[in-house]
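If you are new to this repository, start here. Below is one unmodified record pulled from the training split, so you can see the exact layout before writing a loader.
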Amino acid sequence: MDISEWIILTSSLITIATASSCVFPVEWRGRWNQDTYGELEITDRQISRKGTCSKKDGDKYLIADRSSSCYRCMVITKRADNILQYKESLCFGGNSIESVCEKINGDATLHTIVRVPSVPVPCPFQGYHEFSYSNSTTTNNHCKWPVSQIHACADDSKFKFIYKHCNGMSETYDRVLDFQCLATWVNGEKYLYGKFTHPYNPDVPQYRCFMHSFYGGNGDMSMTVDGTCQGLQSPSVGFTTMKLQRDFEGTIWPTPQCRFPEFFHRRKHWRDMSGRFVIEVDEGLQIFRVKDKSVTSPDMVVYSEGSYRSDMKMVVRCIDNVDSSHRHEREFMAHVTDDACVSGYRCLRLVKREPKVLELYISTQLGSRHEACSDSSFDNGEKHVLIPAGLEATNCPTDGDFSFIDKTTDCTGRFKIGCTSKTGMVVEKKCPFNRQSVEFMDCLLDFKKDGTHYVIVQRPKDIHKRATCLAFRDTEGGIDVKEDSECGAKRSVVRNSAIHYVLFKPSNECPRVVTYTPTPTEVYRPNDDTGNSGQPDQEIETMDDQGLNKEHSGKIISEDSDKRPVDRSNGVINAENAGVSPRTNVSLIFCVTIVILACLLQR
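And here is the target side for that same chain:
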């Protein structure tokens, strides 16, 4: 290669490197919505409807529009994770970033785009507010009566706006809109960006930009007429302006005044048996939050790891101790805000069944804070059995191979506990007309109460991670097993139990020995000084004859000369039991090496 070829190659590489360096930040890439124009997408080097990034200088980007054979300059500013704003020039024939970008006028339109879908952010103000509003730029008359309201929701990124119509003001209306905050930033003034949705048409968002200012319990807020941030001059000047006043008396949004029990805080994250709710307890033990886990849709934002998103279902604030006379059962007056943005007082009962099993009772809404709590308060309320979030499978409390009959059908079968796995149960059922099924369950934890042994189990393939209780009780005819999702809690009524069996005693023990036939290469063991015959011993470590509260590995153990156990569990063929000895491997490697050397010598 001569010097001219080197120069051409070097120039080409420099050109390629320069072009490839014009890329958009990773955090900008994805789908965005622009009011009036609809969606656009940003990739590493392209913006749909705009073109391909050609050159970059700070926040200035020279975009090549191949369809029109011209270049435009875009000055892009990131305001928040969910918001980008930009100004752009017209499209020109020159490709100088300096000359094209200087064509942008100072009064050029500021465009705002919002990420879709967006991860919501906490709103800059919280609680309950009353407000008056004006929807006209030609008059400062505010609609003051009847009073409009902003209701706080359980999720701190949401509000419910309740607009009221004022007589004689045609630009006012009666309307209820849900609002979610998507971004906040400061650029001289404080900005808020979010979306309104109508309860009856939640899939059609209306994006709006706000400028706001709060002082004490009062505030001013102006709002745009569309999804741009154009037309906002100050918090009190805009197309729509609002004057807000917070609930000073604390009657609707009170301050917590007591603490929940320590046994509730010992584990900061709980879940209910249905797998739908996660309960998070604050450090101060004055507030806990109930999050609703629902399966994601294609456009859903994943708020946390996994295939689920969490929406705040309820925020519970401790207001007063009602009954603390029982160590493991406490009652409280609580202030509750739910996901419908309704706030009020409710009775709350916490019962400690075991360190890892709690009962949570929440009454229906009371008429006032001073209404007395009683057992009847909880009749139509919510009831949850709570277990620690993230609980993993653990050893089942016993093992055995039981035969059973189904008390609700004509089916029979075998109920195996701790046999195939020390943490698992297997139900093999046979029914008339040759119908058969096999069900697997993992043991999570167990406890005893009033002569009944409760084992909390979970189906391993259930994506919702629902858990349930199996209640084992000794009877004259055998062991009665019934599925009870509430683990025998107060007001527990078992309906349509999926499992209601009678297990027959005595049980068969789980298989204790598994025969293993060694390969010929494993039978011969020269220089074996361990005193055995060269035939490997394989057996399963099992529980003692009583089969209770003993751990076993469930693995086939082979003793070789250096006494290291070899895992042959679950029928897995691994490097140790694949039927090929280390000597065979060495021989194969030697033969392959000879063949390769011979081929090289022939060349």
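Two things worth knowing about this chain: The helical segments are 3-20, 97-101, 262-265, 520-523, 582-602. Residues 400-504 form a domain with the Lipocalin fold (CATH 2.40.128).
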